[in-house]
Amino acid sequence: MERLQKVIAHAGITSRRKAEGLITEGRVRVNGQVIKELGVQVSSKDVVEVDGIPIEQEQHVYYLFYKPRGVISAVTDDKKRKVVLDYFAEVPERVYPVGRLDYDTSGLLLLTNDGELSQTLMHPKHEVDKVYVAKVKGIADKKQLLPLTKGIRIEGRKTAPARFEILSTDQTAQSSIVQLTIHEGRNHQVKNMLKAVGLPVQKLKRENYGPLDLKGLRPGEYRELSKKEVSQLKNSAK
């Protein structure tokens, strides 16, 4: 289900704001009934008409993208930097990233035109696991990372409990590889959590999102999710 004005905008009729005007002016019908109220939600099975002409609703599509470092998790960028949608020029549907990865963070990013699923996945109450692997400065030990499993205060708010695993340490380079599993999505969260326990992040990659991983993909590549994967992703958010 998606808001009526969003469905109209996605169909290419007009912008979302102007679609709201069409609705309040009584120019939109859903299943033959005039709709004048904003916020009405419709599904792909509903027949939506603007000025008596049925619109073609986009079918939902779901893509898994291996975001390289140095790419913005956005649709456009006013500084003309490379954005994730630059890699989706061949995709006819208007897709959007689910959440974001920092400019200098690589890894798994989902893109879809399913607004309802996108909002569900991003809400922390659904506790969808996201697994990150970080190269950090310093020799990590369990005692140092243990506070993360209970939650720590960052910018006045306590984080949800996280899980960690120390994958390797390098005494010569004085660095470590740490895996961190969280289900929140605050700005720079993984970097801030590791910095708070004295392990500044030097390099960061998201390897898993719920049941999905990056197997078979290289940076800059994407693939469409199977029906089974979409179902698993939806189930992981329940």
Automatic annotation (TrEMBL):
Q: Which PROSITE patterns match?
A: PSI_RSU, S4
The EC designation for this entry is: 5.4.99.-
Show the stretches that span the lipid bilayer. Answer: none
Question: What Pfam families does its record include?
Answer: PseudoU_synth_2, S4
Q: Note the InterPro entries from the entry.
A: PsdUridine_s_RsuA/RluB/E/F_cat, PsdUridine_synth_cat_dom_sf, PsdUridine_synth_RsuA/RluA, PsdUridine_synth_RsuA/RluB/E/F, PsdUridine_synth_RsuA/RluB_CS, RsuA_PseudoU_synthase, S4_RNA-bd, S4_RNA-bd_sf
Q: Domain RNA-binding S4: where?
A: 2-59
Keywords in alphabetical order:
Isomerase, RNA-binding
Domain of life, source organism:
Bacteria
Q: What class of enzyme is it?
A: isomerase
SMART domains, per the entry: S4
Q: Which family does it belong to?
A: Belongs to the pseudouridine synthase RsuA family.
Report what the protein is called. Answer: Pseudouridine synthase
Species of origin reads: Enterococcus innesii
Q: Which gene encodes it?
A: rluB
